[in-house]
C-alpha cells in the first residue's frame, strides 16, 4: 500500500513514528513528514513558519506544495492527514474534488470543540474517516459513522507512569517553546526558586534549541539543571511548573503534580477569550469538567501569574488527590491510539 501523508508539525511526527510501528512493512509513506521516517517530498525545516509575515512570504510555496501533494496522491491508495488544519483542510478539499473516491483519513483533528465549529462540516464533507483523540469530540459531529475515538497518542509515547508519590528533591520547570512564553515566565521562575530552597531545579528545554538560542532567549539559567527529555524529567520530578500546552497533559498522565501558568500578549489573550469559550486552559481540566469533576490542577493566567500565587499553590496543593486523579485520567483516555489508527488505515 502507498500512503500519502501530510504531517507538518514536530508533534505530529512523534505520533506518526509510533503509528508506523503498527503499520505493515508493505505500507510505503510518501508526502510530508520527518526524514527519519522515510523519504519525504520536503524536509520539515523547509515548512517552518514564524508569524504572519513569514506565512505570507511562503504562501506561494504552500500553494505549490498543495498541488504537488494532490498530484502525488494520484498513485496512492489512501491519504493520511495529521493536525495542521490551516494547510490540511484546504488540501483535503482539493483531494476530494480531484479524487471523489479516494479514502482520506484525518488523525489529530482540529479542535473544533473549542472554536471554529464550522470546520466540522468541512471535515465530514472532505474526509472518509476521522480519528479522534478526545473522548467527547464526537458529540459535535453529525455523521457518527465517520468519527471514531481511537485513544490518545500520549498513552503510547509515555513509557513510565508513577506508581507512588515520592519526594525526589527535583522540581521541573517548563516555560514553553515559544519565545514570548519563555521570556514572560523565566523571570518569575528565577524568583520562585528562591522561595523553594535546597531543591534541584530542572529546566526542560526543547531539543531543537541550540546553545546560542538558549543563551539569547532564556537569560540567566545558572541555577537550573538543563534537561531535554520531558517524560524522563517529569517522571523523576516531585513537582512541576508548566506553561500551558501538551506538557500539562503529559505531567497529569505521568502523575507529577504541577501548576499551570500562562502569559500571552494582552491582545492575543483578548482575541482568544472572544473566540474560545472554555472554562479551563489545561486539557486535563477540560476532561475533568466533561466528567463532572473538580479541576485536576490550578491555572494562573496573565496578571495572576505571580511568584506568590505559584508558591502558594506549590505549598498547598493536595498532591495525594492529584495523584489519585491522574489514574482516573488515564482510565478516561483508556488506551493509546497508534494501533487503532493503523487498523483503520489498513482495513
From TrEMBL:
Keywords, sorted A to Z: Glycosyltransferase, Lipid A biosynthesis, Lipid biosynthesis, Lipid metabolism, Transferase
GO MF entry, a single one: phospholipid binding
First and last residue of the signal peptide: none
EC main group: transferase
EC number(s) stated in the UniProt entry for this protein: 2.4.1.182
Keyword Transmembrane: no
Membrane-spanning ranges: none
Coiled coil: none
Catalyzed reactions: a lipid X + a UDP-2-N,3-O-bis[(3R)-3-hydroxyacyl]-alpha-D-glucosamine = a lipid A disaccharide + UDP + H(+)
Gene Ontology cellular component annotations, sorted alphabetically: membrane
Gene Ontology process terms (BP): lipid A biosynthetic process
Keyword Glycosyltransferase included in the entry's annotation: yes
Any matching Pfam family: LpxB
Job description of the protein: Condensation of UDP-2,3-diacylglucosamine and 2,3-diacylglucosamine-1-phosphate to form lipid A disaccharide, a precursor of lipid A, a phosphorylated glycolipid that anchors the lipopolysaccharide to the outer membrane of the cell.
NCBIfam families found in the cross-reference section: lpxB (TIGR00215)
The protein, known as: Lipid-A-disaccharide synthase
Taxonomy of the source species: Bacteria, Pseudomonadati, Campylobacterota, Epsilonproteobacteria, Campylobacterales
Encoding gene per record: lpxB
